[in-house]
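quick q for whoever's on today - can somebody do inverse folding on this one?? i tried earlier but teh output was garbage lol. tokens:
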């Protein structure tokens, strides 16, 4: 059975050689984080709150492996936005189809795990943009995401105080580091924060409890920064608002979620029922091609083994028949027959060894062809990647040129509009000045007429007063004369009563009267 042992060793060596040849590298496996979050129950309104245990509900989110390269996000995120170059941040991703008031870390909710406060996004791109890299607000594009390779539960700055807590995206950094420096969160504008009361921070519908952004400045003055991102056992941990404070404020226990892993995206069932692609689609196709070549090699090897076994069995049958005939016919000449048999066995071993050598040569040729095919595949892949990069750069240049053209056209329209506005303003100002001058002339004429009327009225009043004074003096004189006559008549009557004889004489002598 020596030929069987040699054949098994040869097949094993060929299989191992086929698997190790070429530039094949196994595809990276993705991880899936599975969270168990508490079911939402409204907190009791009374002050004597009771902490209630709740049943966990399982939710799922994608998390890539530790060796994620930045270019691996392009294929996954391109359907939900575009890649742009932003100043010192370099190549960034901008989401599309979001609201005007949209900002990061607002479409989802917080859970607590052994990673600390972990953001569970309700957006299809959230598995990457809230756990790898950071967000920045660019005047030209709005919110953009700068990717990095390190996974974290949430890259945010935290504030807490006076019953409120809030979070804001940390700005990007050029170097790949974990630590968060104070100047990174001290310069975050107030309108980048999202605030809510501490009792609502761990609820799945936390978005319904967001404080309006116009109150952010007031709340920031009443809160302090509590950002604390550390590395524990080679694991990024984000400490934010105190869990005990949240439990005390809400009256409900904050259950820690469990983190599990899945071997690939095929094992993942997201809450959006989306079929996620692998992070290394080229490596996966390479692996499939390699497995196909290995299967072809195994089939060819098995065919060779079957042919060899058949040929060997035919040789053995012929050898046994011939040997039995020689034994029966030439029993006396056993030594000679044994010598002939030994010679035949040696010839058979030589033929078998030649067949094995031929088979090994075929295996080596197959491995060489496989290596050439792998090299050609790698060259084609690199060429295609370079062409795609050139096409992306060309498209980006065209977009920049179109954007600059639109900006120039918009500026020309604005300049024209400004000139028209200035002309209209000058015309309105001239009309206003003419109106003011006419009004002043009319006012002066009215004042002159009013003064003349007043003078005429004053003269009339003086004449009327003089007439009234003359009439009063005339009346007083008449009254005085009447009184004098009355006094004279009274005196006369009195005198007549005292001297009646004189009166009679006077009556006789009219001259005395």
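ok took a stab at it. sequence:
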């Amino acid at each position: 059975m020596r030929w069987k042992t040699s054949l098994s060793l040869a097949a094993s060596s060929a299989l191992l050689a086929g698997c190790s040849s070429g530039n094949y590298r196994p595809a990276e496996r993705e991880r899936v984080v599975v969270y168990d979050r508490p079911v939402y129950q409204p907190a009791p309104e009374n002050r004597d709150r009771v902490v209630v245990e709740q049943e966990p509900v399982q939710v799922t989110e994608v998390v890539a492996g530790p060796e994620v390269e930045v270019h691996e996000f392009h294929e996954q995120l391109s359907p939900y936005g575009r890649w742009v170059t932003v100043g010192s941040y370099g190549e960034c991703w901008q989401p599309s189809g979001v609201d005007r008031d949209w900002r990061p870390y607002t479409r989802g909710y917080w859970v607590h795990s052994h990673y600390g406060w972990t953001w569970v996004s309700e957006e299809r791109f959230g598995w990457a943009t809230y756990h790898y890299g950071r967000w920045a607000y660019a005047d030209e594009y709005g919110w953009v995401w700068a990717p990095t390779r390190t996974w974290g539960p949430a890259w945010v700055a935290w504030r807490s105080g006076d019953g409120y807590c809030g979070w804001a995206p940390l700005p990007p950094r050029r170097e790949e580091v974990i630590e968060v420096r104070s100047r990174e969160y001290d310069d975050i504008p107030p309108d980048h924060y999202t605030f809510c009361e501490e009792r609502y921070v761990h609820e799945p519908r936390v978005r319904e409890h967001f404080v309006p952004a116009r109150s952010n400045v007031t709340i920031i003055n009443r809160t302090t920064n509590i950002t604390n991102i550390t590395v524990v056992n080679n694991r990024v941990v984000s400490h934010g608002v105190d869990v005990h404070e949240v439990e005390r404020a809400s009256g409900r226990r904050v259950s820690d979620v469990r983190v599990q892993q899945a071997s690939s995206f095929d094992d993942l069932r997201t809450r959006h029922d989306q079929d996620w692609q692998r992070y290394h689609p080229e490596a996966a196709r390479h692996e499939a091609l390699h497995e196909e070549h290995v299967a072809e090699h195994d089939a060819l090897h098995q065919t060779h083994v079957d042919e060899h076994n058949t040929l060997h069995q035919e040789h053995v049958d012929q050898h046994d028949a011939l040997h039995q005939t020689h034994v029966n016919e030439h029993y006396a000449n056993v030594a000679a027959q044994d010598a002939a048999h030994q010679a035949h066995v040696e010839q058979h071993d030589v033929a078998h060894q030649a067949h094995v050598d031929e088979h090994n040569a075929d295996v080596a040729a197959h491995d060489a062809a496989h290596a050439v095919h792998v090299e050609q595949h790698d060259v084609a892949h690199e060429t295609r990647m370079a062409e795609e990069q050139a096409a992306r750069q060309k498209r980006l240049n065209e977009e920049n040129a179109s954007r600059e053209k639109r900006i120039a056209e918009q500026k020309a329209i604005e300049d024209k509009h400004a000139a028209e506005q200035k002309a209209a303003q000058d015309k309105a100002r001239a009309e206003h000045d003419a109106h003011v001058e006419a009004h002043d002339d009319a006012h002066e004429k009215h004042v002159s007429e009013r003064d003349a009327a007043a003078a005429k009225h004053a003269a009339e009043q003086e004449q009327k007063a003089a007439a009234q004074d003359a009439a009063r003096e005339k009346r007083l004189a008449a009254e005085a004369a009447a009184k004098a006559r009355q006094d004279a008549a009274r005196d006369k009557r009195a005198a007549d009563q005292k001297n009646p004889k004189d009166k009679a004489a006077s009556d006789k002598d009219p001259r005395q009267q």
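fwiw Residues 286-392 form one domain. also The first strand starts at residue 31 and ends at 38. so keep that in mind when u check it
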